């Protein structure tokens, strides 16, 4: 445990410093959660304490190294690799590989009873827990036969929980954008042509422009999306072109496929 | 003919019927498959299989020697040799001269030549015949496999079961597998984009299989390229003058007939070889007339028409579901659906793309979108955790 306590304040400070870029509103939310998870792991994993620390320290230090100046990355990573190795040398001989531990995770699925809040299941917490589990497994991919296999199916989370959590904020954003673009364009067209808003709506060309604006806002959400869309169009016909290559240079005559 | 081809070794049910394969060359009949997602969600597939349906697992050396012996009994001449190069025909009516090393029980080959009217290459992904006829190159994936023996009680688990692991850790654009063979299992993985990391991917595969292959002893390591698409020119006329002269062609892996998504090639290799041979027989009117490139192109047209839907569907599946970890999670979730399983097995076992009922297709489309949306939403949550924790 002595190894563990210095690690904790550093992760706390790391999470606080990083939280400054996006979504300040969530600041209070996450560090508390990560704290509880660490406590859970150290409490349950008696003999494996050194093991979990070796694993936990690694991603935190990597995050720290990634954010600030690039120059410092190499020496910090080397140091962290050395720490891991010295830990790893002892870990390998004594301790089994790290397991995902959470008091609400049992026998390959989430125990929904433990997620109850005011009598109903708190689906947001289930989504959070599952995201956390997947993140952990992505960082430590491992044995698939643990717990007799995972049987959790995300489809049991009702559709409205997903809509409320993911669709609504994005929809708000996109509707806001569409409204701003629409207002400005209506004003612009009115100032240029003198056609008021009601008359614009009756005009076919303006209705087309409106349609294009809405579609554009839906389809192009980030700058990268323009490139991605072009790539998608190429990709969808690439395989066909590879197959048709045999028939491209046909000059000797002969039957063509349909 | 003395080498042992590295191969997954899975054949669809229709191959047994179409090629009259005897039951004793099939080592195992796989009826259950387990798909395991990046977050270890496992799904069992095979509930919809009828009792007489299975995926046959066999050893290539057994299958190949059976087919060769059968061909010889039917009148073919077997030559145990290593193709080196061939000389193109000098003019109309001239033949190819094939240079090869003859083995025939010897250890060191003796150079020899053979004059033939047409050459069809079925010599695999690194085909020398294809190179000689200038068929062009293709992109390829590399498949790496370790054959290992595991203790008997663990082998029981794999009695009729094959496993497929998906995830960025085991393969960024393909899948990893544990396939049962005669008395051992084959554990392997493959990739197109990260060929240099194949050993790391293989270690991750062993890690994921974990306890199930505990105590395994590896006795053979194999690797081979898998073509990703057909070669640009699968049938050519190589005569030095403008017309006439025999054609050169390719079939199977040499032509690049491996599907995407599942990487299946044995059936298409055998079928393309048979179709090509049938066209040659018909075109030459049982050996009385010389054949030309047009005859081979007829075989290509038939093959493309028959199997193009299969290849295209698998390509679309690969593009949609092997893109990223959330897509792979969605893929595994989709495989739990009975309709999906039924359609998949119908098209795999019998090599037909069945249209299915419209209502079920619509429900499937909605479910697919749902799965993809959920998995991507969770992925966004995971990214946030990555920043904050």
Automatic annotation (TrEMBL), chain A:
**Gene3D superfamilies assigned:** Chlorophyll a/b binding protein domain
What is its subcellular localisation? Answer: Membrane
Look up and give the membrane topology term.
Multi-pass membrane protein
Quick one: a GO cellular component term?
A: membrane
**Keyword list, A-Z:** Membrane, Transmembrane, Transmembrane helix
> SUPFAM superfamilies given for it?
Chlorophyll a-b binding protein
Q: Which PANTHER family match?
A: UPF0041 BRAIN PROTEIN 44-RELATED
What is the protein name stated in its UniProt record?
A: Uncharacterized protein
Species annotation: Spirodela intermedia
From TrEMBL, chain B:
Answer whether the UniProt record assigns the keyword Transport to this protein. no
One GO MF term attached to the UniProt entry: geranylgeranyl reductase activity
Pathway where this protein functions: Cofactor biosynthesis; tocopherol biosynthesis; Porphyrin-containing compound metabolism; chlorophyll biosynthesis
Q: Which GO terms describe its cellular component?
A: chloroplast thylakoid membrane
At the top of the EC hierarchy, this enzyme's class is oxidoreductase
**This protein's superkingdom?**
Eukaryota
Q: Tell me which stretches of the chain form a coiled coil.
A: none
Q: Name one GO biological process term.
A: chlorophyll biosynthetic process
Query: What does the record give as the reaction this protein catalyses?
Result: phytyl diphosphate + 3 NADP(+) = geranylgeranyl diphosphate + 3 NADPH + 3 H(+)
Q: What is its EC number?
A: 1.3.1.83
Which keywords belong to this entry?
Chlorophyll biosynthesis, NADP, Oxidoreductase, Photosynthesis
Q: Which family does it belong to?
A: Belongs to the geranylgeranyl reductase family. ChlP subfamily.
- So what does this one do? Catalyzes the reduction of geranylgeranyl diphosphate to phytyl diphosphate, providing phytol for both tocopherol and chlorophyll synthesis.
Protein name per Swiss-Prot or TrEMBL = Geranylgeranyl diphosphate reductase, chloroplastic
The species this protein belongs to is Spirodela intermedia (Intermediate duckweed)
Q: What lineage does the source organism belong to? A: Eukaryota, Viridiplantae, Streptophyta, Embryophyta, Tracheophyta
